[in-house]
Amino acid sequence: MKKIPHLISALLLASLGQAAHAASESPVYLANQNPFVQIYGLPKSEAGFITPKGKLDAMFLYYVSNNAYSDDPGNGEKMTWDGETSQFTMKLRYGLFERLEVGVDVPYVQQSGGYWDSVIRNFHSLVGFPNDRQEEFDKNQIDYNVSGKSSYRMTDDHSGLGDIRFTAALPILIESERSRRALAVRSVLKLPTGDSDYLLGSGGTDISAGLAYTDKELLAVINTVLTANLGAVYMSDSDVLSEMQLNVAGYGGISADWLALRWLEVKLQLDMHSAMYDTELVQLGSSLQLLAGATIHVPGDVLIDFGISEQLVTDATPDVGFYLMVGHTF
What we know:
By secondary structure, the protein is mostly beta strands. The chain has helices at about 5-15, 115-125; strands at about 55-70, 80-95, 100-110, 145, 150-155, 160, 165-175, 180-190, 205-215, 225-235, 250-260, 265-275, 285-300, 300-310, 320-330. Strands 1-2-3-7-8-9-10-11-12-13-14-15 form a twelve-stranded antiparallel barrel.
């Protein structure tokens, strides 16, 4: 794990200045990494167009997020969220028919004390942000502790297979020469393959349905593609905080993808979801998350995505998160 930051740096340095191909025009594939949220089948933003028939999009994704915060609303509920969540995911999307894309996400999840605490504190000091919250906790420890109508406690590192997701997408509006807009219905079925005792999964089966819309016309004059996602997810009864859990949540997001150079896309994205728990704990409430990143195109139709996530408005998302994706179309 300690070698991962060096691997990321090497990949990015090796990519700079390389040739390019067509834009990927896809949003950042990342949802809220809150350890009590990522166990559910919350969909990640995807494009309004689907993978062409006979083509396979294969991607390997690495996410890591870090948080150090406690909450006591004074109603008998308390929460401590101090730790680091990492996910290594193999994402596959295949064009089975002209009007059907199928896919699967296979995640490996780590819940740990991590190693980013010092980096984040140094960064906050450099840019003038306070470290008051972070300095309440020892560095690189894990302490997930919730008490109230339900309770949960984990203070040791754990890792393993997460909940596997199967996806499907059907186009409603197909991009053409006359209209560079696309709209698709997307659905996710999440199965309980991860161990809920260690927040590797929820212990329940979830299903979602939503719309994904991509518009290449509205801001074409500045080489920018807009994508919006909107839908709902049904979460069956979980083994985690079951007395607090809600069964339905809404989600949405909007992203802008600017083709800055033939080999470089710059992305800015806002994602949100409604609360998944019935509680006054803000860390388990609705969320609004900012994602900023870039896609680099390298020879051989290889894409490298990287970027950062930051919490906005609420404390239901991690203080900071980082992502890296390497993908290829076959």
